[in-house]
Amino acid sequence: MICVSIGRSRHRHVIAEHRHLVEQGARLVELRLDYVRGDVNIKRLITNRPCPVIISCRREADGGRFPGTEAQRRMLLRTAIAEGVEYVDLEDDLAGSVPRFGKTKRIVSLHDFRRTPDDLDAIYARLAALDPDVVKICTMANHPHDNIRMLRMVQQAKLPTIGLCMGDIGVPSRVLGGRYGAPFTYATFHHERALAPGQLSFDEMVNVYRYERIDKDTEVYGVIADPVGHSLSPLIHNAAFAERGLNKVYLPFRVPREDLAQFLDDAGELGIKGLSVTIPHKEAVLAKLTKADGAVQGIGACNTIVLAGKDRLGFNTDYHAAMSSLEEAMGGAGDDHRPLAGKKALVLGAGGVGKAIAYGLMRREAQVVVSDGRNDVARKLASRFGCHHVEWAKRHTVIPDVLVNCTPVGMHPNVDESPYPKHHLRPTMVVFDAVYNPESTLLVKDARARNCRVVTGLEMFVRQACFQFKHFTGQDGPADLMRDVIRRTIAAAKG
Predict the structure, then answer these.
(1) Domain check: are 347 and 483 in the same one?
(2) Could you write out the three-class secondary structure of 97-150?
(3) CA–CA separation, 117 and 192 (whole Å)
């Protein structure tokens, strides 16, 4: 079950939001009294309530806003109990002075906004001794392994226990808690009004992650990156899993560089079966793979991992997606038709995607020139693949048949920038921009205005996701659905 937290300053807004949430399917809400301005009228807030409530009133030290005294806060919570609310949330230092009364259930909680302490089991034991019906422990995740420790504690607890790691690193604990025995998790009314770090919206929990459907048999997939909040991969993969009726969930895993090895060692315990890999881990994961396909070995970068027993199998779907997109734009693909052979190709950007595309172009016998703002990186890549490189300031001196942008230039919000001067574009060129947000970058617009053939980053992104979906499920990915989800998401963000 999902408990949705409501933090509004006016009574009527709290009541209206409560009713709206129930209409949207919510079965439990938390009313945060510390957000209500002025005198709090508990009876008004809970009379004719459309679903059960948790009443909480948090001090600033516990992530709240209550401006009054401890005596006033204690009185509000006691009043809520006397009025017969379903749950009251009591911090550990308050629980002993607020006795049990009537049918109201007690949530005894602890919040640590700095770290996830080493002694979680001892903290649980201390809270469990304070006469709770539910134990709740919320801590800040500073490492992905904190999620593992928290979920272990939840699973081993004898009392119903909610264990949440806050922050973007802690998101997996919010989505997977029910799988480990937590009676419910927490969400916010809207993603722009999170009441705790890393809190997801009710809509995301229901419609993206399908929280209520996650069980012990649910297979876990995800994307590892740092940062990861911008990734659209959870949206498209979860939509695809839902369309196919698969008991799988796809999560964003923020994994700092120094935590990568530990995270991959922990993956099995989290039930992870497959991972998308992006910045900054595409090269670093190679050391943790047990097997890698030819593209990964040739490129020196991996963007897809399949976990099968003790094996970690590495693939590069960027390579396959880019080549199939380019070949289709140039009139065909396959061994009998080699549209890239002999063509001059300028690849802007020597990062992970640039490596994959340069490798693919070389395999297809194109004449490849690489350029990057970091000239030493471009030179190193050119030396590795046996191609040419040109300094970034001189990139426009190359007039290619195929121009590929693998830099972030033109990406939202810097949509008025282009990595290649418009007046150097020629109608005979094929222009491929790996940026997918926005789909129509300035480079793409300029190329179309010059009557170039164009491949957008959205097309590559969808294709690489479909290839990943195939590795994860054995089924072809639903390209039209994924394309539609991305376009709707980008349009909504603009609106």
Answers:
(1) no
(2) CCCCCCCCEEEEEEEECCCCCCCHHHHHHHHHCCCCCEEEEEEECCCCHHHHHH
(3) 28
**How many structural domains are present in the chain?**
3
Where does residue 338 fall: left (phi above 0), alpha (psi -120 to 50 degrees), or beta otherwise? Answer: beta
**Residues of the chain with pLDDT > 90: what percent?**
92
Which residue do the tokens 């722009």 mark? 192
Q: Measured between alpha carbons, how far is 480 from 468 in angstroms, rounded to an integer?
A: 15
DSSP secondary-structure letter at 306? E
CATH number at residue 260: 3.40.50.10860
CB-CB contact of 168 with 140 (8 Å): no
Structure tokens at 124: 């649980």
| DSSP classification of residue 205 | I
Span 361-395, pLDDT tens digits = 999 999 999 999 999 999 999 999 999 999 999 99
Query: What's the pTM value of the predicted model, to 2 decimals?
Result: 0.93
Report the run of H or E that residue 445 belongs to, with start and end.
helix 442-449
Runs of H (alpha helix) within 267-374:
294-299, 317-329, 352-363
Q: What is the pLDDT of residues 241-300, one digit of tens each?
A: 999 999 999 999 999 999 999 999 999 999 999 999 998 999 999 999 999 999 999 999
Q: pLDDT band at residue 336, thresholds of 50, 70 and 90? A: very low
Residues with active-site annotation: 111, 136, 282, 318
Residue 163 domain-assigned (yes or no): yes
Integer Cα distance of 239 and 236 in angstroms: 5
CA-to-CA distance for 485 and 495, rounded, in angstroms?
Answer: 15
Cα–Cα distance measured from residue 215 to residue 58, given in angstroms and rounded to the nearest whole number: 32
